Amino acid sequence: MRPFRQLDAGRLGAIDFVLTDIDDTLTTDGRLPSIAYEALERLSDAGIKVIPVTGRPAGWCDLIARLWPVDAVVGENGAFYFACEAGGGMTRVFAQSDEKRRADRQRLDGLAAAILAGVPGARISADQPFREADLAIDFAEDGPRLEDGAIDRIVACFEAAGAVAKVSSIHVNGWFGHYDKLAMTRRLFAERYGLGLDAENGRAIFVGDSPNDAPMFGFFDHSVGVANFADFCDVVATPPKWITSRAGGAGFAEVADAVLGALAFCSQAESPDVRINAENQKGFREG
Prior knowledge:
The chain is built from nine helices and 13 strands. It has helices at about 10, 35-45, 60-65, 100-120, 150-160, 180-195, 215-220, 250-270, 270-285, and strands at about 1-5, 15-20, 50, 75, 80-85, 90-95, 125, 135-140, 165, 170-175, 205-210, 225, 240-245.
């Protein structure tokens, strides 16, 4: 990982999409600080499309899509994307059918009981009632943080049952099916923006903080970890390319400031007055 401040302003000036995790990327110590929310708003006001890509539940994502200054949101680690148009209602697109999600819910409920019985201290996430597709086991949000060995046992329980398991900074999320944050982000870009991510990689930047962001870190040329990602360096096989100097919401604001600064610089450089002045200076030197 290289310091984010070294990322070339010319590359940042080409950014049209800012994708971001939420927990411990936008938030700091479990709260959304004003510096991070204001950064979202400034990006949106500048015409940059902001898309949270999170493990948080459908209920939260419905609110985020409706009320935050964002263009869309990918939730439950890629189970769906939501997008809300002013006066036009909510678009909801899921990776799996209603029938499949209902059947998987029964399997996940049984798995939850097994995990709680087999891993002392494990608890169901408080946001579980608002989830559509996965099971979230809390190891750090609403109680003492479990030891790494306990977290590993939770992951093992999911995998033994044939489920996918991803570790965030606060939860282990498990689900049945072959999707992740990157797969649903690809679908969102194709269906909402008519863009193929492989060809348009340079127009997006992703900001995250934890192991479940690894698919995004690996894919995006402009993948950034906020400073607290350093806590996971030893357990993530695919780290971000860049890392901020600040943690959590302040780290996200650091990225937003750089993107907006580069955008302003590029706009100024392309303005007629600047071009005319440059041409005049060129003529003066040649004369």
